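Methods — Computational structure assignment.
A single polypeptide chain was analysed. Its primary sequence is given first, followed by the predicted tertiary structure written as structure tokens.
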Amino acid sequence: MDEQNPITSKETKENTTKIVKTPTSFPFAIKDPNDDFSLKVNDNFNFESSNLSFLKPISSNLDLEVDKLKDYLTSNSNKSLAITGYYTNEEKNNSAYPNLGLARANSIKNFLTSKGVPSKVMNTFGEVKNDMVPDSLHVFHGPIAFNLSELKDDTEEMDKLAEYIKAHAIELHFETGQSKIDLNAEERQEIADIAKYLDKVDGATCLITGHTDNTGDSANNLVLGQNRANSVKEYLIKNAAIPENKIIATSKGETEPIADNTTEEGKAKNRRTIITIK
């Protein structure tokens, strides 16, 4: 009788079970703590992973609830709506905001504005929520929360914010003939401040001015400065959800240098686009 060799610990078989997490889903739910007004429907705004824009079209049930919310806010001018967008740290933030959640909240805010809700009664926030799970198509279901409260006078806050924005205008620099945009963390926060100011102050606009060095023809440089300003405008519309009608893009070409155009360092400083408010 043959003797069987014992199985060593290194040869033991491991049974691996893949754990499939159930996708999370948050309903569209709103309740006024100081009133009997409330809304709730299982549908909500859905977002693809790493995307700031919600999927369209929304369901008819959700659209109906949004209309009810609009009617309530327009009939109660003393009410304020807080919109919080959720995101996970695994998602890539391609927006112009400090985080993807804030970008998502702003996209919802713009949608509600298009439905007739005054933008000045809405406030947007972003919150990381790493326990969210997308579905098999990498879609997050309802990563948005809404809260109603009493509207506060923010005139003093907006005056201070305007002063800060004007003193800290965003200055983007470009390589010769280029218009690629890459914001750092501080600039992303400044974009968020500008977007907030535009929402709260009637008639406020975002002013984008393109400047160039003196390389080449002055007429061409005027066009180049305008092209750069237009690129920034398109970037803010797409990545910061700032409405097009609140942005003015213009060009100064080579006419307002801030450094010596006879040096490469000076030319680099002059190739700039300024973003501020008007």
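Note: The CA atoms of residues 12 and 217 lie 76 Å apart.
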